[in-house]
Design goal:
The complex is a heterodimer.
Chain A: E1 12-19, E2 22-28, E3 38-45, E4 52-60, E5 64-66, E6 78-86, E7 89-90, E8 94-95, H1 101-104, E9 111-116, E10 121-126, H2 142-145, E11 149-157, E12 163-168, E13 172-175, E14 183-192, E15 197-198, E16 205-208
Chain B: H1 2-19, H2 39-57, H3 66-91, H4 99-113, H5 117-126, H6 128-136
Helix pairs in contact in B: 1-3, 1-5, 1-6, 2-3, 2-4
The chains are: A mainly beta, B mainly alpha.
Keywords (chain B): Cytokine, Disulfide bond, Secreted, Signal
Disulfide bonds (chain B): 43-95, 44-97
Protein name (chain B): Interleukin family protein
Amino acid sequence: SGELYCSLPNPRNVHFESINMKNVLHWSAPEGTGDGVLYKVKYSVYGVGRWIRKPECRNINSTWCDLSNETSDYEDQYYASVKAFLNGMCSDWMETTRFNPLTDTKIGPPMVNVSSTEKSISIILTAPEKWKRSPEEESVSLLQVYPGLQYNVSVLNKKTKKRWWFSVSNNTLVVPWLEPGTAYCVSAQIHVTTPLLYSGFSKEYCIATLRDK
Amino acid sequence: SVTEIRSGFTAIKANIQARDTIRTLSILSHPHSLHKVKPLDRCCITHQLFNFYVDKVFKHCKTEDSFVNRKISSIANSFLSVKRKLGQCHEQNKCLCGQESAEKFKQILANYEGLNVTSAAIKSLGELDILLDWIEKS
């Protein structure tokens, strides 16, 4: 392909950043280069090996490239590579380590819905969806991807500051024997046992139990 | 157990996979993915794969890194105990091998024997996440 003489310093720290299997390639500019550096990106499926160029990430000046579409089959593993160009010079291709979407993605926190009665609160938990190409595409919950997915739930009595912890596999939890007319705050986290993955905690959702009639 | 194997492998995954520079070939996932195996054949292929790792792979995975070597031997010990349990299933005819699983395993051996033994062993070790992802899927 008529490669130029490649003496430009290499892009650094080429790696995938993945959340809910939205897989974006990131890198840092070559050392000592200011503005004007352009990049091109290619990727390959491990075990198939043919490098495939990503046209939308050809001659770009940003230091990221969304490869979610190309790496959406999480039963495969992938490599990606970046090359830099500046003033007629180029760098070497710099590769990622092997990327396994199933084990290397970060999981977002669950959605939390709370409702209350006089002496209990009901919590409905929803796992995030896997990244999808378009809104019209059928949604796939991460629950389908990780059958061993569980929820760690924290319930805080705002008055007494007493906190309870629950670990549940299904997506509903009823916390009974609570004090009427009291505010409780709920936060939840996803825990996949294998491969071992934790999401961050959701923000707190507070609700008051109804007052005694 | 499988969880111990997974955590042991996670600790050395980057190191082992970096030693495997052959991108164009996979032992377990191409040309036929483990994920296409029928439920009926799962037990037999799992049994064969555990035998394969114990008999052929681990003994050729010596590295210059003592931490990595320790992790490899602990993974190998976990494989041995799982292999024994699978062996009991096999003896009680609960793990029957059909034509498809024989073909599948033959393909895996062909992939393995297509490389020199050290490269093949390191590549197989580096693909433990593929094996574990498949085992844990159901």
